[in-house]
Amino acid sequence: MKQGFRTAEHLSLSSRMTMVVLCILLSYTSVFSGELMKKGDDLYRAGKFFEAIPVYKQALRAEENPPITHFNIANCWFQLDSLSKAAVHYDLTISQAPEFVRAYLNLGIVHFNMDQFGSAVSVLERGRIEDPENLTMIQVLAESYRRLKKYDHAIPLYLELIDRDSSKVDSWFVLAEMSRELGDGDEAAAYVKNYPDAGRRQGDKYFMLAEIAEERGRFSEAVFYLNQYAVLNPKDRWPHYKCIALIQKQGNPLSAVFKAQETVKKFPDFSDAALLGGNIAFAEKQFRFAEELYLIAYKNGSAGGVTGLNNLNRYFTRTGDRESSNRIARILALQAKKQKP
User: Fold this and answer.
1) Are the C-beta atoms of 137 and 124 separated by less than 8 Å?
2) Of the candidates 299, 267, 264, which has an alpha carbon nearest to the alpha carbon of residue 281?
3) For residue 265, what are the domain limits?
4) Mean pLDDT of 191-214
5) Contacts for 76 with CB less than 8 Å, ≥ 6 apart
6) Within a domain: residue 334?
7) Based on the structure, what is the number of domains in the chain?
8) What is the pTM of this model?
9) What is the pLDDT of residue 292?
């Protein structure tokens, strides 16, 4: 069953961060013309990061622009996933060139990727003093605060990010999730409604609105949004299952049964929906509907379907409905016969 949202798409920054490091390194290769630096840059471009490091260290000894050389060594260690070594050289870059904004950014990214969110915040806040307009820095800083659950800092930064860059619309989901954690369903719904209807995650927008509505006890509203989601995702059967449960919560058990019948007509092998509908029908003493739905679940190999038919058989036996009892007994006998080796 769909349990929630795939947040990695708008929260995971690691691949984007690697590209930041690569672009920053290459942007300096044409500026600094020392022979050793050029040799190291060529090795870096060829993906020979380990071989580039001793060449850059030779450049350090030759004093070929030490801050940039430390920066390039750090980039090599980053590419080799030696983040602690990368951090040492980014720190050295900053100590020698405090105005070098990109070193703050990359050091913040390193701390972020090491789950050292407090250190990332400290470095990035210093970097923002040098360059308050840097959108990548705002994004990583905002997410670092979010990971620390310091939402009073994260929320304004995400709002600033959206205001400065209209392409960052996925951030509305992040803002909504933070508001949900703060228990403010109204604000969460308001945030996610800002996501454009024509966006590629429009379906996720409706699904999150359904979750928020359910959390607030607004079951009819949740059903409405789930139906909107289902229109956009016609192959996803689980919103229909959720609608059955929500309609029952609304106090409309027969409507829930009808929704279950409609769902299994659309998805004939959806035994979970058939079983849920059968259980609701049985509880409401709608035994004809219960039998129909349990039988669908049974035919799809659901153990719950067999259990449901057994419960019906016991009820019919107890109430003297011999015809119905015999009919279900024959079905169960056939099942038992099929299971014999």
Assistant:
1) yes
2) 264
3) 237-341
4) 94
5) 44, 49, 50, 52, 53, 56
6) yes
7) 1
8) 0.80
9) 95
